[in-house]
Amino acid sequence: MRKWAAAADSPVHDVPPEDLMIAVEQLVRYVRQSATAGGLGTTASSALARLGREGPQRLTALARAEGASQPNMTQLVTRMERAGLVRRVADPSDGRVVLVEATDTGLEVFRERRTERAQALQHLVEQLSGPEQPAVRVALPALSRAIQEHPSQP
After folding, report:
1. What are the helix (H) ranges across the chain?
2. pLDDT tens track for 28-51
3. Coil, helix or strand for 97?
């Protein structure tokens, strides 16, 4: 495993894109592993988070958004339904369509996991030097904004 190659005082332009990618991968892994509420796996956690943020969705749309096959998402939703995290409901605009929505229990697990992740990120930021802390607080929202403005991959 490679370590972060750039020293804290090295110019930003000297950091190779590969090292930035390694840092992002490590950050995502660290934050994901910090969330333990509900004992969910990565895919279940991601699907529940999407339902918590965006509201009820068709199973096909949820599968597509999560990069999963429809049969795999059907199995996952069934397991999450048995755990009381989600339920299937009729679409109010078209009763023939079934939506998946988070239950109150699922929303609580979603909020607990988000809090755990936020605390893990806060802990990491607090370990940074004085100048690095505001840089991260500016850079992460800026990257999020760039993703929202240009969601398709290059």
Report:
1. 17-34, 42-54, 59-66, 70-82, 104-126, 132-149
2. 999 988 988 888 988 999 999 999
3. strand
